[in-house]
Amino acid sequence: MGNGQIQSLRVEDFSGGMTDFYIGNADSSKFQLADNKVINDNQDLVTRQGCTIDDEANDQILSGEDNVNDILDCDDVIYKHSGRSLFYTLSGTMSEVTGPTGNKVFPTGDDTLKGSFTVWNKHLICASSNYAPIMRVYKDQAGAIKVNNLGLPSTEAYSCIALANDLKAKYNAHRINVSQHGVADTVNVVTSANATDFDSLVTLTAELLTKYAAHRADAALVTPTYHVAQSTANALASTTSPTSLFEIQERLNDLKTKFNAHDADGTAHTGTSLNQVTLDSVFKVAAGGAGARNYLYAIMYSHTYKVGEVQYKEIGPVTIVELSNSLEPSSSNNPLTNLPVLVNGTVNNYATSDVKIEIARTTDGGDIFYYLGEVTNGTTTYTDATSDANLQDSFPIYISGGALDNEEPPKGKYVKIVNDSLVVGNVKEGTVIRPFRARVSKIGIPYSHPSTFTIDFIDDINGLGSINVYPIVMLENRCYRLEGSLDSLGRGGYQKREISTKVGTISHRSITDTRDGLVFASEDGFYFTEGFRVTKISKEISTTYKNLADKEDICGAYDKDNNYVLFGVKRNSSSLANDTVFCGHGDYVRQDGEVPFTTWSGGLNPSNFTATALAFINGFVYRGDRRGYVFKHSEDVFTDPRIDTAVSAEDWFTETIIYDYRSVAYDFGSGDAKKWVSKLVVNADNRTSLSLDIYSNNDNSGVFKELKPIVDRGNIEWGDPTLVWSDTSLRWNYYPTISAWRRFPNEGLRCQYKQIRLTNRYTQLDDSTVVGNVSINSSLDQVTLLNHPSFDFIPDPVGYYISFASDNYAQEFLITDISGGTLTVENGAGLLVDSAGTAWRMNGYRKREVLNIINYVIQFNFLTTTQAPYKAQSGEG
Question: What is residue 458's DSSP assignment?
């Protein structure tokens, strides 16, 4: 025994958090592990919140067993993102958000794409990792959920689409026309689908250039295959695939000119020209009569809509055409033709039935555009009969005064509203991906992104955030704060201020706003920035963090009520999704910026718990699951749902929350002496009954030896059939502190380091003593209580184990279902034996039990030094 006075180590502050450096750590507030624990306001360690399914009636997203990748709150609607889809529940029904023609929120890509979302004035703005068009989701004045593209395209784009489609039809008709050719050209056929958007327009234009060039090259041969004679005219200026709308327009105009000339080339062909292209790449305007006046006409798409009762209007880029030598329109009407038709195809969600084409004009020789009128999308003509005098009674359009065009937002991976502007990061402009570029919108006009509003960085943008009025741009290994602004005339600019030249983010979804700044996941840990520097907040768990898998999938959320930062991570590389939540406690930040962490998990059933998405909405932590469910954590729930994809969530049972606390390995203030450690006292808050297992580990051996458990049944759970309700010792609403002491095992009293572990006890929960025996049907894997309905099994027994007197309770069977007085058990090994009546026991980890540790005390005294002395070896001098 000890040779000194008995001393006590009192541990009552658990605010130090997890540490990888737990051996001999002198800070008793730290611990090696606290799984399914949080640190409360009193620095106690308490069991984390349990959870329920968010919406039992609409439990699983409509796409089935897919990851819930994001949980989003906008205008009192909770959206659930999975792959290309966004789901919501209104009036008790789950629906998918779809566009005017049925396209998804992300019309292109696959289920592996990652989303980026930000909110502006009750608009949910959506971007994706595969550079799909940026969308906006909103609730209209009738309460219906709508999705449209953010912004409107240039009218020239859709004039070019019509021209390219016409060129395809005319060219394909021309090449097989045997009345013009000696032999039909069946080789150089254009097979691309008709264009409906920019990407398909690029594809079609590129093939048109290539196939026409090959067809026309045949005519240039001395002995053509398809043409009747050699003609070297009408070669294209360029056959290079276009990358921008300007290049598309340039090449299509050239192709139209050259093709029409080739079609009419009497040397290369016989017969008359049959396939002339008449459409243009812009709208046309003609003078109603010859005169001396000169006008500029402009057209643009517009869309007016409401979010609730607030009206918004988007106006697209302006296309300008000059008209010279005209009479004043009031004396001779000027017709506009070739007005383009906006279509969605398979990749866009424009509100095509609500979009208008607005038309404007200057006065004779003027430079201010006044609004003339509008036509609905699909109308291709307009007649101008407005005099100059009457025109000036109208209002100027938005570009008057030098305002830059409302260019459509570029496609981009990341979006963030900052200071009433939309920042798009890692963008695709035309067909060119510029991952190093950010584009910023006009202030208050998130759909307007002039091409000059760009900021380039030295490497790829990995994520966006904001602090106050500053956009925060994160690369993989760098972090920037943007200062400045740009007005609608393009005046001003942004300055890049380096916050860190070594730290950036590895996951945009990990970037999380807190009350003081941003937290985010980097390659080597979790970090915090207030916009001027970065601080590592996870130094104590650096090794744990290093061993995480798939860090690019880390997601984050901030519980502002409890000041928790939450990160969904994957600790087990074989897991199918994030399997753990790291909970950082912002109330206990240390002087060096370190944040104490605990973890949340599925305990002994790890597959039952995933964290594919995290969000804090209306006072609750929401957690996404890889099987398409969303769970809501709550302070008054003490279990997790037991996930069963085969049945509705309404029929699910519950799962015990398995907590696991492992202290640091105490050296009791001395690293050079052994200790005699005799007794442990545990004091816990009596919130529920308690079945507590206690273990002891000496000298980091990895072997945890069991102490006598602490079992407290003082609390009464309503409906417990095992209680004897006439027992006068039962007291309602009486919850004294649970306080108990236990001796350490005799064979482990001496040690240099002592570590303790506290976790749920596997215990007997029910037996046949009160409620009677059961019968067993092995063919149906069923166990039936013979005295039912006079007696019942304990509530919610699924997940517990039952054993029988017939084999002296040696074999346990997992309970998988209950119906009335009949249990269904797992009998994969075929060991269940029929019985007409047998005694039984039910064991397991009791549900709805929590451990709220107030403190514990370890009693010890010092022995002798522990280090081995030096011994001379044979042959040493």
Answer: S
Specify the pTM: 0.92
Q: Name the β-bridge partners of 519.
A: 512, 528
User: Whole-angstrom Cα distance, residue 709 to residue 714?
Assistant: 16
Q: Is the pLDDT of residue 122 over 80?
A: yes
Mean pLDDT of the chain: 93
For residues 150 and 421, give the distance between their C-alpha atoms in angstroms, rounded to a whole number: 13
CA 379 to centroid of chain Cα atoms: 40
For residue 260, the surrounding DSSP H or E stretch is helix 245-263
Please list, in sequence order, all residues whose beta carbon lies within 8 angstroms of the beta carbon of residue 181, skipping any fewer than 6 positions away: 175, 226, 227, 228, 269
By DSSP bridging, strand 334-337 and strand 382-384 are: antiparallel
Using a 10 angstrom Cβ sphere, with 0-12 exposed, 13-18 middle and 19 or more buried, the burial of residue 485 is middle
Q: What is the pLDDT of residue 871?
A: 61
For 622, phi then psi, to 5°, come to -105, 140
CA distance 75 to 145: 11
- Please give the Cα distance from 156 to 626 (Å, whole number): 44
Provide the pLDDT for residue 723: 46
Q: Say whether 319 sits in a helix, a strand or coil.
A: strand
The CA-based diameter of the chain, rounded to the nearest angstrom, is 123
Span 668-709, pLDDT tens digits: 998 888 999 999 999 998 778 899 999 999 999 989 999 999
Report the pLDDT averaged over residues 545-572.
Answer: 97
CA distance 193 to 176: 19
Nearest-angstrom CA–CA distance, 689 and 319: 74
Q: In this structure, how many other beta carbons lie within 10 angstroms of the beta carbon of residue 145?
A: 20
Q: For 786, how many CA atoms within 13 A lie in the half-sphere containing its CB?
A: 15
The CA-based angle 547-115-458, given to 5 degrees, is: 70
Three-class HEC string of 140-197 = CCCCCEEEEECCCCCHHHHHHHHHHHHHHHHHHHHHCCCCCCCCCCCCCCCCCCCCCC
Residue 58 in tokens: 């609409």
C-alpha distances in Å from residue 800, one per residue of 642, 764, 771: 12, 10, 17
Under a CB-based contact definition with an 8 Å cutoff, are residues 28 and 12 in contact?
no
Q: How far is residue 73 CA from its own chain's centroid? A: 12
pLDDT for the residue numbered 866? 55
Single-letter amino acid, residue 361:
R
**Residue 464, strand partner residues:** 473
> What is residue 98's DSSP assignment?
B
Tell me if residue 701 falls in helix, strand or coil: coil
Element (H, E) at 616: strand 613-617
Residue 410 Cα distances to 104, 135, 420, 837, angstroms: 19, 11, 18, 73
Burial of 705 from C-beta contacts in 10 A (0-12 / 13-18 / 19+) = middle
CA distances from 652 to 189, 309, 405, 602, 648 (A): 59, 41, 56, 16, 7
Two structure tokens written together for 738: 């649970």
Question: CA 854, CA 775: separation in Å to the nearest integer?
Answer: 45
Q: Is the dihedral of CA 723, 728, 731, 732 positive or negative?
A: positive
Residue type, 111: D
Residue with tokens 């205008």: 75
Q: Is the pLDDT of residue 567 over 70?
A: yes
When pLDDT is averaged across residues 808-814 and rounded to a whole number, the result is 96
Amino acid at 127: A
Q: pLDDT of 240-277, one tens digit each?
A: 999 999 999 999 999 999 999 999 999 999 988 889 99
Q: Which residue has the tokens 């994969």?
A: 828
Q: Which residue has the higher pLDDT, 860 or 332?
A: 860
Rg over alpha carbons for the chain, rounded to the nearest Å, is 37
Mean pLDDT of 629-647: 94
Take residue 422 and report the two structure tokens written for it.
């939309």
Cα angle 607, 610, 614 (rounded to 5 degrees) comes to: 170
- Cβ neighbors of 275 (< 8 A, separation 6 or more) are 170, 171, 173, 174, 177, 263
Q: Which residues contact 315 (CB under 8 A, 6 or more apart)?
A: 152, 300, 301, 302, 358, 397, 398, 406
